Amino acid sequence: MSRRLMVLKLYVAVALGGMLGAIGRYSISIIMESDSVFPIATLLVNLLGCFLLAYLMSASAIKNRISTEVFTGLTTGLLGAFTTFSTFASETVVLWNYNPSMAVVYVLLSLLLGLLLAYGGFLLAKKGRRST
Fold first, then answer.
1. Cβ pair 95, 102 in contact under 8 A
2. 106, 47 Cβ separation under 8 angstroms
3. d(C-alpha 126, C-alpha 132), whole Å
4. Domain span at 125
5. What stretches of the chain show up as alpha helix (H) in DSSP?
6. 40: exposed, middle or buried (C-beta count within 10 Å: 0-12, 13-18, 19+)?
7. pTM greater than 0.70
8. Which tens digit of pLDDT belongs to each residue from 60-111?
9. How far apart are CA 46 and CA 55, in angstroms?
10. Nearest to 79 by CA among 39, 34, 121, 107
């Protein structure tokens, strides 16, 4: 397979994954729409993304069974578009203007729980490697 075709397949995989991730993220924000100023949908999406990306990046059983294009489409495309740092940042600024202490809680929850869930995804993938 030529290098150009391989690169093209990766771009298509990222584009398709990105489209699905963006639709998924938008759908969750619509489903979880509330009158609250606290951005719970973004928090949940980003936390889920932390767990899933760490799991996929660490799960050699998955990485070895799927093509590079599918793996890149899932990680860079789908999860890259599903999670969102720019929304997190802008919602934090809006929240800060409304209630600074709530903004601090949001940032701490995002950071601490995100790291904890990423570590959980890594541990789950590591456990899966031992059982296979």
1. yes
2. no
3. 10
4. 3-131
5. 3-31, 40-58, 60-63, 68-72, 80-82, 85-98, 100-131
6. middle
7. yes
8. 878 889 999 999 999 999 999 999 899 999 999 999 999 999 999 999 999 9
9. 14
10. 121
- Alpha carbon of 70 to those of 2, 9, 20, 78, 124: distances in Å? 18, 9, 13, 10, 21
User: Does pLDDT of 38 surpass 80?
Assistant: yes
Distance CA 102, CA 96 (A): 7
Give the CA diameter of the chain. Answer: 56
- Which structure tokens are listed for 122? 């890594």
pLDDT digit string (tens) for 13-33? 999 999 999 999 999 999 998
Q: Work out how many domains the chain is built from and give that number.
A: 1
Over residues 42-47, the mean pLDDT reads: 96
Map tokens 């093509």 to a residue: 67
Q: What is the pLDDT of residue 49?
A: 96
Instruction: Kindly state the DSSP code that residue 15 receives in the 8-state scheme.
Output: H
The predicted pLDDT at position 88 comes to: 95
Neighbours of 94 (CB within 10 A): 11
